Amino acid sequence: MTYLDSFSPRSYAEAFGEFISQSPTSYHAAENVARILTDAGFVRSEQTEAWSGQRHGVMVVGGAVIAWQMPQTFTENTGARIIGSHTDSPSFKLKPVATSTVTGYSQVNVEVYGGPLLNSWLNRDLGIAGQIVTTEGERHLVKTDAVMTIPQLAPHLDRGQNDDLRLSRQQDYHPIWSCDEASVMDYICASAGIDAEQVAGTDLFAYDVTPYRIYGGAAGDDFFCAGRQDNLTSVFASLEAFLATAQTDVEHDDVLIFVAFDHEEVGSGTPTGASGPILESTLRRIVDATEFAGDEGYWRFIAQSSCISADAGHAINPNKMDKHDPAHHPILGGGPLLKLNAQQRYATDAIGSATWLRAAHEAGVSTQEFVSNNDVPCGTTIGPLTATRFGMTTVDVGVAMLSMHSIREITNPADLLAMAKILHAYWIGA
Ligand SMILES: [Zn+2]
């Protein structure tokens, strides 16, 4: 019995829905992970502090978060078992001059972040969330309720709206937020108790305020619908698995690493992205605090390490069967996906596949394979980046999803829970 066995698919999905509501941006997600782990006894550290050597620790760096559990004894055979995910999702980011006035309306100036399914953002109730830094260097996380919406032209005014929708990222995606002349930044600052005169910098994003819903099928729990499931499905599953692992008596010989990077949706090449130094510097500091300090000990440790890169995957859309490979039809409810790609857009190889299948077997849940239709380009994720950087066996996996990158994505509650169970099995030694 583990902590995860206390969940039904529905109760797990409800807990996940709450986590999503509290995590409208990468910054909020990272802070929520740290709060949940410190509540469970993990010690929070800062990158700038001397390495604390805590057995159970967590560190937030902007929109990224990394946590670790040390084994009872660190030996020459110790490696790391890493599960990596990402905290960010496609969205719209506010520009420095946040408000423009057009024919009496005040509009919010935004640029596109990542690759959203753009038209899904039209006619929605949008809030604004993110970080504001003052001239004093104080950092505030802010989150408003619904404040703006992107109005779409009615079909009467453009007959092409239903047959040939072509929208400009610059022209057509400006939310309106007021019927009068009013500064949206003044509003955000007032609601967060910040003096607007003191604002020096902002990283603010649009998000959908609509709460999650669970419905579908005779039992009413076939679909879990909410925003940001790419990739909070993996952040939350690895977080719950990490908590379950910390609570078991099962001895592990390896260092267990939870890491959720920022900026995957824009290519990961940032200080807090998967191509940045967070994972490497943490692994290095962990080894250097042991008797195996130094390059030789570090590289030996790395050679005995492995990584699961967890990110959302595509379930087959029954309206577009031909976009999938005819022999590989991952469906909602069929279990988490093992993702394979010959061009190495996913890092999975046969050795990684075996690790994954062993963990799924231990967890007693089924999994499915995802491989692209050869005529459809394949996405990528953090797996190939960490695999290339460290040279360790890496396996790309994820929860099957419909409507990926839409403002509201669709998964299956049993798949969500199964993902957490497999990740837990990997961490306890499968
Ligand atoms: Zn994505």
General description of the model:
This protein is α/β, with parallel strands linked by helices and 430 residues long. It folds into two domains: 288 residues, 3-Layer(aba) Sandwich (Aminopeptidase), CATH 3.40.630; 118 residues, Aminopeptidase i, Domain 2, CATH 2.30.250. Helix content is 26%, strand content 26%. It contains nine helices and 20 strands. The strands form five sheets. A nine-stranded mixed β-sheet has the order 1-2-3-13-4-14-18-16-17, with helices on both faces. It has a three-stranded antiparallel β-sheet with strand order 5-6-9, with no helix packed on it. The chain has a three-stranded antiparallel β-sheet with strand order 8-7-10, covered by helices on one side. Helix 1 crosses helix 9 and helix 4 packs across helix 9. The longest helix is centred in the middle third of the chain and has 19 residues. The structure holds zinc ion. It holds the Pfam family Peptidase_M18. It comes from Arcanobacterium phocisimile. It is an enzyme of class 3 (hydrolase). GO terms for molecular function: aminopeptidase activity. Its EC number is 3.4.11.-.
Key attributes of the depicted protein:
alpha/beta; Aminopeptidase i, Domain 2; 2 domains; Aminopeptidase; 9-stranded mixed beta sheet; binds zinc ion; 430 residues; 26% helix; globular; 9 helices; 3-stranded antiparallel beta sheet
